[in-house]
């Protein structure tokens, strides 16, 4: 075992590696500690209901719900938040070891402190939501694709497990994982066919395998709750909701209702103006039609007809929400008092945690993000600009291997925006859950300035 070098403590030393994970984990929990309780979202109650009561909720990922159950949510949500932070800390440490091998323990902890105060990381890592693992998914797939051989079998196996689990905890993660795996496979194929291009040749098998394992987890979890095998029963409904917001659903229903007597035909003139109003509005006709279970089949019919009759509008209009989604990076979306949604689940399934949950700053309306986002959004956009500059310089100088990491980060951000913008509609939390990765990459790649670094060496003498 390599000697411990104090104070550098390189991450190549297993002791420093373990210490980094152990110290980053409580650091990422700091915002939740300040809050007095792990952060919760509107969807948290549905995950609790599905996981602790084993009651299938079509619009929520069964894998994450069962994770709550096995991680001890009934006893304490702190164990869930700690497990999530541990996963993020582990993946970030392995990411640092791979992309910046000279990174020491203290530099990584310093980066962790900067991410704590200047990015959205701590607001997601300790949030009882699948969004906590989006960035971990992107980092794990990158490591499997470009650094698997150097990591060794144990780290590789752990990262494969993380990638598979993170893929399965949310439908958008399933789409992101599939998109990354397909793109990496295409890159490998191009690099093999045209070696003169000098493109990196990633390991395309491991990302594809992680996606396959994640898909298997989804099927297994859904079967455990319903005794039926399927991927999703809410996808068509979310797609229909997006078409509602864009006016395409009304147009399609006007065309098909004379020949197809659907239940949706009766409400086509009462469709609300946005997808969120259709899905979550208290006065939405969606509630009267049986919500997800009652509209799944007809939603799929309308979506299919809209794509057949209006392909350009159905796809093209979906790109605008994706473009909006890419730039929506504000922190704090949904971190607000939510007793009207969550109180019943806490009282019924986690009564011993109800007092702490109610006393948290979030539930008392004491968490504000106006000033926070002045900093977070500014840093997010600056990081995108600087990362783009690094990518452009590397590409223009034909240093393709130097361009790989920034290009991958942009690929993950664009893929995330496409999946969420097209299938669900833009919300700040979808992109802010991942944007901190761009900041982390810049901090890891940053080099300390050298005195007179721009001056050429001058020979002494005459």
Structure description:
The chain is mainly alpha-helical. It folds into 2 domains: 14-227 and 335-371, no CATH class; 235-309, no CATH class. It contains 22 helices and no strands. It has helices spanning 14-28, 30-35, 44-53, 62-70, 77-99, 105-118, 121-125, 134-146, 148-168, 171-193, 205-226, 235-246, 248-256, 275-280, 285-288, 291-309, 311-327, 339-349, 354-359, 370-396, 400-423, 428-445. The longest helix has 27 residues, at 370-396. The protein is globular. The model is unreliable at 1-6 and 451-462 (pLDDT under 50).
- Per DSSP, the total helix count is 22
SSE run:
HHHHHHHHHHHHHHHHHHHHHH
Number of strands: 0
The quaternary structure here is: single chain
Q: Radius of gyration, rounded?
A: 24 Å
Tell me the distance between the termini.
50 Å
The residue-averaged pLDDT reads: 91
Structural class call reads mainly alpha
- Which range does the strand content fall in? under 5%
> Can you tell me the number of structural domains?
2
Identify the overall geometry.
globular
Short summary of the structure?
With 462 residues, this protein is mainly α.
Give the secondary structure arrangement, pairings included.
Layout: H1 14-28, H2 30-35, H3 44-53, H4 62-70, H5 77-99, H6 105-118, H7 121-125, H8 134-146, H9 148-168, H10 171-193, H11 205-226, H12 235-246, H13 248-256, H14 275-280, H15 285-288, H16 291-309, H17 311-327, H18 339-349, H19 354-359, H20 370-396, H21 400-423, H22 428-445
Helix pairs in contact: 1-5, 1-6, 3-4, 3-18, 5-8, 5-9, 8-9, 8-10, 8-11, 8-22, 9-10, 9-11, 10-11, 10-21, 12-16, 13-16, 16-17, 17-21, 20-21, 20-22, 21-22
């Amino acid at each position: 075992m390599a000697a411990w070098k104090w104070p550098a403590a390189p991450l190549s030393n297993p002791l420093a590696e373990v210490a980094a994970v152990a110290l980053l984990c409580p650091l990422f929990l700091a915002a939740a500690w300040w809050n007095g309780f792990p952060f919760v979202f509107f969807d948290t109650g549905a995950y609790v209901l599905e996981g602790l009561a084993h009651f299938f909720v079509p619009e929520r990922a069964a894998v994450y719900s069962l994770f709550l159950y096995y991680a001890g949510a009934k006893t304490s949500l702190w164990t869930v938040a700690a497990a999530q932070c541990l996963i993020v800390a582990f993946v970030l440490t392995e990411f640092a070891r791979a992309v910046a091998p000279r990174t020491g323990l203290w530099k990584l902890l310093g980066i962790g402190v900067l991410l704590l105060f200047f990015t959205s990381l701590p607001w997601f890592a300790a949030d009882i939501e699948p969004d906590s693992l989006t960035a971990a998914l992107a980092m794990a797939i990158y490591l499997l694709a470009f650094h698997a051989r150097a990591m060794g079998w144990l780290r590789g196996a752990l990262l494969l497990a993380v990638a598979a689990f993170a893929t399965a905890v949310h439908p958008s993660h399933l789409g992101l994982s599939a998109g990354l795996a397909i793109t990496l496979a295409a890159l490998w194929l191009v690099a093999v066919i045209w070696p003169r291009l000098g493109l990196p040749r990633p390991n395309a098998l491991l990302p594809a395998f992680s996606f396959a394992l994640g898909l298997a987890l989804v099927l297994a979890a859904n079967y455990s709750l319903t005794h039926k095998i399927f991927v999703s029963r809410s996808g068509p409904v979310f797609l229909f909701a997006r078409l509602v917001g864009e006016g395409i659903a009304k147009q399609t229903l006007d065309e098909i209702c004379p020949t197809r007597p659907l239940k949706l035909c009766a409400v086509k003139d009462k469709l609300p103006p946005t997808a969120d109003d259709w899905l979550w509005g208290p006065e939405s006709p969606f509630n009267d039609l049986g919500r997800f279970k009652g509209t799944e089949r007809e939603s799929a019919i309308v979506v299919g007809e809209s794509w057949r009759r209006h392909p350009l509008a159905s796809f093209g209009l979906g790109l605008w929400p994706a473009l909006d989604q890419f730039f929506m990076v504000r922190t704090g979306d949904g971190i607000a008092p939510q007793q009207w949604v969550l109180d019943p689940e806490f009282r019924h399934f986690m009564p011993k945690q109800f007092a702490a949950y109610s006393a948290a700053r979030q539930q008392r309306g004491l968490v504000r993000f106006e000033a926070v986002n002045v900093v977070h959004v500014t840093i997010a956009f600056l990081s995108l600009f600087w990362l783009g500059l690094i990518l452009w310089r590397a590409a223009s100088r034909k240093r393709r291997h130097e361009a790989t990491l920034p290009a991958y980060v942009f690929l993950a951000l664009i893929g995330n925006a496409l999946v969420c913008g097209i299938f669900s509609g833009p919300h700040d939390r979808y992109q802010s859950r991942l944007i901190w990765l761009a900041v982390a990459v810049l901090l890891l790649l940053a080099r300390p300035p050298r005195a007179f670094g721009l001056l050429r060496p001058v020979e002494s003498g005459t």
